[in-house]
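User: Okay, second chain of the day. Same drill as before: sequence in, structure tokens out.
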Amino acid sequence: MTGGRGSLENLFNNVVNNLYLANYLHYLKAIGFFEQKRQQSTINSTFNASIAAGTPILFPERDEQIRIVDVLSACDNKIAALEKEITTLNELFQALLEELMNGRLAVGNLLS
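Assistant: Same drill. Structure tokens below.
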């Protein structure tokens, strides 16, 4: 990663792919970075500008960011397809179970 550490100026100069930044911030959330950095008071926890300014954002070169986003998008698409398949299989299972319970389908018919 030769892009180094970035700044808001770099963001506005379109050095960072927006999807890369979104995935990176989601990663930070997933590992609990923001939970660790928040300031806890007796009532509320806060995440203020000074904490945000200290958030490390690593910017690889733009072409590497695009490759990272492409891989993550492909993974997201695969996950969505598998979730849809699970939903379809569950619906099929429920329909078959209903047919069996109502006697419209016999187990013997399924075995032959």
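The radius of gyration is 24 Å.

User: Thanks, on to the next one.
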